[in-house]
Design a protein that fits this description.
By secondary structure, this protein is of the alpha+beta class. The chain has helices at 2-29, 215-223; strands at residues 36-43, 46-51, 60-62, 68-70, 76-77, 84-87, 90-93, 100-107, 115-118, 125-126, 130-136, 145-151, 162-163, 170-176, 183-193, 202-208. It has two helices and 16 strands. The termini are far apart. The strands form four sheets. Strands 1, 2, 3, 4, 5 and 8 form a six-stranded mixed sheet that branches. A five-stranded mixed sheet has the order 10-16-15-12-13. It folds into two domains: 31-107, no CATH class; 115-211, Immunoglobulins (Immunoglobulin-like, Sandwich), CATH 2.60.40.10. The model is unreliable at 18-35 (pLDDT under 50).
């Protein structure tokens, strides 16, 4: 009986010793604030120490390409974008291991508007509600484009954002006009980066005529 009590006590001690690791894992998985980080901002072409908080410096964006994260054995864990997320509240960590990070911030600059066109439509009138499109863009150093949006509204506030592969500089797809009825349509294209910065829009003006009764005449008038 005494031997069983000793075994039970040893098991309880072992379980209690694991609790800190368990809670750390849960905490990190739930995207709690980053426990260990060093932040550097670019001033006069040099990076200088800024702070060790999770608050993003005003007027700066995170340069993912220059930033690094390390585990407790000082082994680099990459890419940083897998662990560090930019949100309205600040920087958040998503990881099930303990990490320390060196984060580098560049002065914020606007994202260039994408090149945008509807494929196969050389004129300004289409009879199709659904049309193929191509978006292409250039990226600045350290910039990661994460998603795009096509909308018939000039504001991106109600955008449904679509994921873009990190290394992409173009994407093709289809868009179906949401607003029913024939007549003039304007389609706006936006890009968003890993810092949640939204580009200015590119736009296409087109006339939708699902009956196709007037498209040939409209296109002839527009090209004359």
């Amino acid at each position: 009986m005494k031997k069983k009590r000793i075994i039970i006590i040893l098991i309880l001690i072992f379980i209690i010793s694991l609790l800190p690791l368990f809670y750390e894992s849960i905490s990190l998985k739930e995207n709690k604030e980053i426990p260990k980080l060093a932040m550097y901002i670019k001033e006069n072409d040099e990076y200088v120490k800024y702070s060790s908080s999770n608050i993003i410096p005003d007027g700066y964006r995170l340069n993912y390409a220059s930033s690094h994260c390390y585990d407790k054995d000082n082994q680099e864990q990459s890419p940083v974008r897998n662990f560090i997320k930019v949100t309205e509240e600040g920087l958040l960590l998503s990881s099930n291991i303990s990490l320390s990070c060196e984060l580098y911030f560049d002065p914020q600059s606007p994202i260039d508007s994408p090149n945008f066109y509807l494929k196969g439509i050389d004129e300004k009138c289409t009879k199709e509600m659904t049309n193929s499109f191509t978006l292409s863009w250039s990226k600045k150093e350290g910039e990661i484009i994460t998603s795009y949006c096509l909308t018939e509204e000039e504001s991106p506030d109600n955008c449904s954002w679509n994921f873009i592969s990190e290394n992409s500089t173009s994407i093709e797809g289809t868009y179906t006009f949401k607003n029913e009825g024939n007549g003039p349509k304007i389609l706006f294209a936006y890009l968003k980066d890993a810092n949640e910065i939204i580009s200015n829009y590119s736009e296409i003006e087109i006339i939708l005529d699902t009956t196709n009764s007037n498209c040939e005449e409209i296109n002839k008038e527009l090209t004359e």
